Amino acid sequence: DCRPTAKARKRSRSPTGNPHLAFSASASLTEKPPAFQQPTQLISFSYTPERVLEFTDSALRYFVDPPRNAQLSHAYDRWERRPEGRARIDGLLCALSAARAKRHPALLAGFGVVAWRGVITRILTAPYEEREGWDLNVMYVDGVLYFEEHLSEARLREKNDIEPRHRIQTYFGYAFESYCTSDSPGATNVPQTPGDPPGWGGDVNTNVQWCSVVRTKLGDTRMVIGGEVDCVRGKYTGATDTFVELKTSLVIRGPHDEVKFEKKLLKFYMQSFLLGVPEILVGFRTPAGQVTTTQVFKTVEIPRLVRGKPHAWDPAVCLRWGGAFLDFLQAHVKGRPATDVWRVRFTPGTGVELRVLDAAEVKDVVAEEERVGFL
Ligand code: A3P
Ligand code: MG
Ligand code: MG
């Protein structure tokens, strides 16, 4: 039971300032970065079109080559859109207990961190993030850190009120997934609705997701990470080495675009690296949503593409920071009551600050959890 109590309030009155960790504290460039263990899958699950979590692979999709010049605005008016919410950890916890029932206990022992992949991506890419700050809720229960993204009400409204111009760009990404996947291995997509273009894999319903939960290790910290996987190449074996990540990006028209793309590659890289996804297919599109070319990137080869450039990023910096971040959290939350809820705030260019939530804030978090049926 991780239900917070009023104890949290007492702590927040303590006169000590909030602990913080600055990037400079983990910036030693000579120190060897902590090792990251090759992820292995513990369990997979699916969200149905009605957004019901089930322990099947019903939402698993298989890679197919997309048609030439795919038009990504197709069937925009038929998009079944899942409202933007807070990425709650409940589905992952549910998967973890299902894994406990199914898998050898040794596979599930000794974890230090449980989180969605998106959260870990944000943490590890923080040293290079120039614009977007973020907040996390953190709980520490029986030696395990649970991370969850925290979005303010205002930020949540912002995400749901995006302009149509931006919303269709989001849709382009999902439409690309439709063209690149089919529901059985080796099957070519046959249009279902009159007017569908060749290769269209079915209308987009963003409730539907196939997720993989993996175990891995950063330095000495064992982690359970869950994330959506877009599709697999060939047969599904349960190993991550057939996973494929699909992305869209604007066509590169000059050196300025190229720099932008190469900076973005850090996020593509980290997102895939964390789940052990070996391959990323990028569809380059026009502003109006026409795919002009596609390119396969091998995840492990991406860092080499940017090395030595002025806007280069280095995964070793990310891993060192990740290790320092976990040490920092563990040092501050160890020995504190499991009922405390912590907030980590990241400020671009600076680092992170940690504080314990007061009772009113905890109540808000709990109310949110209850609203989505977590507690
Ligand atoms: P892109 O391929 O165009 O990025 P993912 O790539 O992680 O599988 O996500 C699929 C699509 O969801 C993305 O397609 C993008 O349209 C949308 N998406 C993912 N993360 C997003 C975010 N943080 N904000 C807005 N849209 C996002
Ligand atoms: Mg995806
Ligand atoms: Mg994708």
Automatic annotation (TrEMBL):
Domain RAI1-like: 37-375
GO molecular function list: metal ion binding; mRNA 5'-diphosphatase activity; nuclease activity; nucleotide binding; RNA binding
Alphabetized UniProt keyword annotations: Hydrolase, Metal-binding, Nuclease, Nucleotide-binding, Nucleus, RNA-binding
EC primary class: hydrolase
Annotated organism of origin: Mycena belliarum
Domain of life (superkingdom): Eukaryota
Residue numbers spanned by region Disordered: 1-20
Keyword Transmembrane helix: no
Catalyzed reactions per annotation: a 5'-end (N(7)-methyl 5'-triphosphoguanosine)-ribonucleoside-ribonucleotide in mRNA + H2O = a (N(7)-methyl 5'-triphosphoguanosine)-nucleoside + a 5'-end phospho-ribonucleoside in mRNA + H(+); a 5'-end NAD(+)-phospho-ribonucleoside in mRNA + H2O = a 5'-end phospho-ribonucleoside in mRNA + NAD(+) + H(+); a 5'-end triphospho-ribonucleoside in mRNA + H2O = a 5'-end phospho-ribonucleoside in mRNA + diphosphate + H(+)
Biological processes per GO annotation: NAD-cap decapping; nuclear-transcribed mRNA catabolic process
InterPro entries listed in its UniProt record: RAI1, RAI1-like_fam
Keyword Repeat on entry: no
Protein purpose: Decapping enzyme for NAD-capped RNAs: specifically hydrolyzes the nicotinamide adenine dinucleotide (NAD) cap from a subset of RNAs by removing the entire NAD moiety from the 5'-end of an NAD-capped RNA.
GO cellular component: cytosol; nucleus
EC number: 3.6.1.-
Protein name as annotated: Decapping nuclease
Membership in a protein family: Belongs to the DXO/Dom3Z family.
Required cofactor(s): a divalent metal cation
Chief localization: nucleus
Location relative to the cell: Nucleus
Pfam (any one): RAI1
